[in-house]
Design brief:
Layout: H1 2-15, H2 22-56, E1 68-74, H3 81-89, E2 97-104, H4 110-117, H5 120-123, E3 129-136, H6 142-152, E4 157-162, E5 165-167, H7 171-176, E6 184-188, E7 191-193, H8 200-222, E8 233-237, H9 238-243, H10 253-267, E9 272-275, E10 281-283, H11 289-310, H12 317-320, H13 322-353, H14 356-384, H15 389-392, H16 402-423, H17 434-439
Parallel strand pairs: 1-2, 1-4, 2-3, 6-9, 7-10
Antiparallel strand pairs: 4-8, 5-10, 6-8
């Protein structure tokens, strides 16, 4: 009890900037001030800019209904794949939607293939909808499936979609409208967590998706520096994807594609990647801590593989352009790679070199900072972006503990990066067979 009392007193000294504790406070400030707050600030300014334009400067958009191909990568979804296809059948889009479902390793995935074939009669009930099921005998991975869909597609717009993702019925119409602008080469939109109410872990991820995949991407897209076009929900001008050679072999094909687009923008800076708030997708997230940690081990490890190996020569103003280079150095290198190690090292340092009351007081300071940040961001999201306010209010119960989840995820980021550096973790991926990943460029 005495230790907690001392920790509280030290915490109050932190708040009032007492000279005796300033060195510890100064140690905490750099990775917040230089890594985190500027990126959040850019995102907030982008959101405010978007709201201002939507309110006062919304231009008239000529109706645009290009032929759209939805390339769905299927592996082991079984009957659940029908929900994805049906959500595309039921789009209100007046143009034609061509649905191409690639079943990777069809011999091992007969249930998925049969579930798709069962939808052929239903496709005839919908005007302007067609379904093509492509059975791939040899499993080649996600990239192989996407390129197979690209080669068979007849649409002007191609959507790269996961088979466990469903969509609001205005998604295609909202997204396709952007391609009336010849400068738009790609679009993405909000991803919402479909199984958010399953347990506290899925609720944490639901809030994470609101703050990162909605408010974060919207803000960055306003400055044309969107960090990643998600693999589960990427929408592209087909001619552009063909021009750059389709998707590249290996893991993290979505981040690889995004980096290649940024390199292309150096020569053609007028090209844009947009975020459409009305193009909403729904996906399931891991429901157990084991699955969640394994997913993040792959996601965060892939960052190192893409940035430090596959595209390390691309971090140059002559290849990337200054705008994208500065953003990638700040976001990809400092925020996503340096910051997790900074937090881990800082945590170990104060735990080993400071008395327990100082350690606890410091953790209280970190917690309060991130709690205030989360409350502000969520309030911004709820008031200005959310189109399902009553539903999204369900995450309010976890706001007080969400900073602890964030802190744990940051530490796990560092573990994932070390795993990639030491063990080449990207080779242990369900996105493609081992032999495919080995043959991909490293």
């Amino acid at each position: 009890m005495e230790t907690l009392t001392q920790a509280w007193q030290i915490f109050l000294l932190f708040l009032f900037f007492d000279n005796d504790v300033m060195p510890l406070l100064v140690a905490f400030v750099p990775y917040v001030i230089f890594f985190e707050l500027p990126l959040n600030f850019i995102g907030w300014m982008g959101v405010f800019h978007h709201i201002f334009q939507e309110t006062f400067q919304t231009p008239y958009r000529t109706p645009h209904y290009p032929r759209v191909t939805c390339a769905i990568t299927c592996y082991a979804e079984g009957k659940a794949v029908q929900n994805t296809v049906i959500s595309l059948f039921e789009q209100i889009y007046p143009g034609h939607i061509e649905i191409i479902a690639m079943v990777d390793g069809v011999k091992q995935n007969r249930k998925t293939f049969e579930a798709l074939e069962a939808l052929y009669p239903r496709a005839s009930y919908y005007s302007g909808r067609s379904l093509i099921v492509v059975p791939k005998i040899q499993r080649g991975g996600r990239v192989s499936s996407l390129n197979a869909g690209l080669s068979r597609s007849s649409g002007d717009v191609i959507m790269a979609l996961d088979a466990d993702t469903s969509f609001d019925n205005q998604m295609v119409q909202k997204a396709a409208a952007h391609f009336n602008d010849a400068n738009v080469i790609a679009v993405t939109g909000p991803m919402r967590v479909r199984n958010a109410k399953k347990n506290i872990l899925t609720l944490f991820q639901s809030l994470e998706y609101m703050l990162s995949l909605q408010i974060g991407k919207l803000g960055l897209a306003e400055f044309n520096v969107i960090n990643n076009i998600p693999g589960a929900f990427g929408i592209f001008r087909k001619s552009f994807v063909q021009q750059i050679g389709g998707w590249n072999t290996g893991t993290a094909e979505d981040l690889d594609m995004t980096v290649r687009i940024k390199q292309y923008q150096r020569r053609y800076p007028h090209l844009r990647v947009n975020f459409e708030t009305g193009a909403v997708s729904h996906t399931d997230v891991p429901e157990t801590w084991k699955d969640f940690l394994h997913q993040r081990l792959r996601w965060d490890g892939d960052l190192w593989h893409i940035y430090a190996n596959k595209h390390k020569k691309g971090f140059s103003p002559s290849i990337m352009g200054w705008r994208n280079l500065v953003f990638l150095v700040w976001y990809a290198l400092l925020f996503q790679i340096v910051m997790p190690f900074s937090i881990a090292i800082y945590l170990v340092y104060i735990a080993c070199h400071q008395p327990l009351p100082f350690f606890l007081a410091n953790m209280m300071l970190v917690y309060c900072f991130y709690l205030c940040l989360v409350i502000f961001q969520f309030s911004l999201y709820l008031l200005l972006i959310s189109d399902r306010k009553s539903q999204d209010c369900g995450v309010l119960v976890i706001l007080p503990v969400y900073p602890l989840f964030q802190f744990m995820v940051r530490l796990w980021n560092a573990v994932a990066l070390v795993n990639e550096i030491v063990n080449k973790g990207h080779l242990d991926s369900a996105m493609a067979p081992y032999w495919v990943l080995r043959k991909g460029r490293r």
